[in-house]
Amino acid sequence: MEDLLKIGGVDLKSRLFVGTGKFSSYEVMKNAIGASGSQVVTVALRRIDLESQEENVLNFVPKDCVLLPNTSGARTAEEAVRIARIARAAGCGNWIKIEVISDNKYLLPDNYETIKATEILAKEGFIVLPYMNPDLMVAKRLKEVGAAAVMPLGAPIGTNRGLKTKEMVRILIDEIDLPIIVDAGIGKPSEAAEAMEMGAAAVLVNTAIATAGDPATMARAFDLAVQAGRMAYLSRPGATKLYAEASSPLTGFLE
């Protein structure tokens, strides 16, 4: 059977979600998205200029991708809800990534406000993917109020520092019956592979691709890493052991 990720009634072959910020140009962004094989692309509503064909980022996002508008810039649940409603009214669909951030230094998400926004928007028929600090009780609450997936950060957004929250993310993967999509902080393809090996349903990568010397090649590297990590997870890796154990018999012809 084909290994598909199902979210909001949509079957996804690719488990790599990509962002659209920080690229040197829209053409570079378009090439990187194409190389990534991604089927889900996130974009901040404030970067969408519906009145300009040249400056509208949506013109450079492949038409067959699921658009995932995000509420970047929202500091409260009310602001996030308003941004989501504007995005849907503008024709961006009903998927929404909730970002509620009031911390200006580390840009950490406000879990309490995120739960509030998720509950309101899920009741309005949105497919809600909330970006959150990895906390088990918060993730359980997000599921209760209607989140379609949860998106815990791997490290502070834009840092490329990798899976600094690895053990907390592992708990979410073990305990939450929703897709766990690691978002923010992943800086290398090997880190994306590690997240997938743990059992994450997908990863979202932006800065690591956009700021690479060759974004398109880096996007392809992330695509392959995500596939490899998923394949490793499905193959059920062998147990780790404290002491050495020979892979070949130490007895036989030597006797």
Give an overview of the whole structure.
With 255 residues, this protein is α/β, with parallel strands linked by helices. The protein has one domain (5-234): Aldolase class I (TIM Barrel, Alpha-Beta Barrel), CATH 3.20.20. Helices cover 35% and strands 15% of the residues. It is built from eight helices and ten strands. The chain has helices spanning 26-36, 77-89, 111-123, 136-144, 166-175, 189-198, 207-210, 215-234; strands at residues 5-7, 10-12, 16-19, 40-44, 66-70, 95-98, 127-132, 151-152, 181-183, 202-205. Strands 5-4-3-10-9 form a five-stranded parallel beta sheet. Strands 6-7-8 form a three-stranded parallel beta sheet. Helix 3 links the parallel strand 6 and strand 7 (127-132). Helix 1 (26-36) runs parallel beside helix 8 (215-234), helix 2 runs parallel beside helix 3 (111-123) and helix 6 packs parallel to helix 8 (215-234). The longest helix is centred in the C-terminal third of the chain and has 20 residues, at 215-234. It is globular. The N and C termini lie far apart (48 Å). The mean pLDDT is 90.
